[in-house]
Specification:
The chain is mainly α. The chain has helices spanning 5-16, 23-34, 39-49, 62-71, 73-87, 97-116.
């Protein structure tokens, strides 16, 4: 299903206005900040190039990714458990644990959100 730009923006605004602190909210906020012209390109770029590309300004520096990890620890561990169950094996974490898992959680949440929104990325 293709979502029109106004509907997509509306759905992302609704998610971003959620009072709970959740990774979904962070992804929606980043998408809305990325640009209003083509919100789908945010998801396409992120899911193609990942957080390592530097496109998520709030997750560039270790101090930021570590703070993100600490804030969302329980949610990240839940995502990690679900993903490892799906794979049938543990994730192969490379480099800094908190940084890697912060990026993983942000990207995996973006993938789930794109699926939920019916985006073809």
């Amino acid at each position: 299903m293709n979502t029109d730009a106004a509907e997509l923006r509306s759905q992302l605004l609704e998610i971003a206005s959620d009072p709970d602190t959740a990774i979904r909210k962070d992804v929606a906020e980043e998408a809305l900040e990325y640009g209003t012209e083509d919100l789908v390109s945010f998801f396409t770029d992120l899911l193609t190039h990942g957080c390592a590309s530097g496109m998520v300004g709030s997750l560039i520096y270790y101090c930021d990714t570590h703070a993100f990890f600490d804030l969302h620890y329980l949610e990240i561990e839940q995502l990690r458990d679900e993903y490892e169950d799906m794979l049938g094996e543990p994730l192969q974490i490379k480099g800094d644990l908190k940084n890697w898992l912060a990026w993983f959680a942000f990207e995996e949440t973006a993938r789930q959100l794109a699926d939920e929104l019916g985006l073809e990325v």
